[in-house]
Predict the structure.
Amino acid sequence: MSHGTGGSPWTYRGMAAYLARAGFVVALPEHPGNSRSDNSLAGTAANLENRPRHVRLVLDAVFEDAQLGQRLSPGRVGVIGHSLGGYTALAVAGGRPSSFPNESPDGQARAVPVVRDPRVRALVLLAPASPWFMAEGALANVDLPILMRTAERDEHTPAMHAEIILRGVPHPQRIDHRVVPNAGHFSFQSPFPPAMTRPEFPPSQDPAGFDRLAFQPVLHAELLTFLRDSLG
């Protein structure tokens, strides 16, 4: 699971626990340089390069782990990404991103060197951020089943982000896409404790009338069905 920019993997704790109880091994990396603990690389080409590598390194560690490795099925990996985590999932699944001029020290746009991980067989994209894949053919190698959920009232990744993905992959019919009515960008995260739920903390907030707590079981069930069907 790949968290959003400046975020934390623990904001998806409910989703992770649900999948673990269903029999999945769930890895929750915190992206160095782009998390709530250290956000020094936010908005840089280095961060775009690092994030997919983090996922590959985590997969290496999990498959090589003495306890977990022997319990895993090779080649049956799904990557779940929210917001910039959606970018990360697409990059590790074969996407070829390009940075923007403002993301590089020299002010030049350039291709971001990322490596596809063939172990990844399915993607879950939640309010994905995708403008780094606008170039022709940038998503041509992302040919695998995708479950994509976007938010009707997303203030950070509006509809054009999903459109880039739908237009860019070679087989858009392999994407199960649904716009969640009245949801906001952060509605895919676990509900925050009452002490943290306040207007000045945007990740804890949803559009008026949206019930994040009630939505979570629906989202989790959809993810579980998709991952079981896609990974076998």
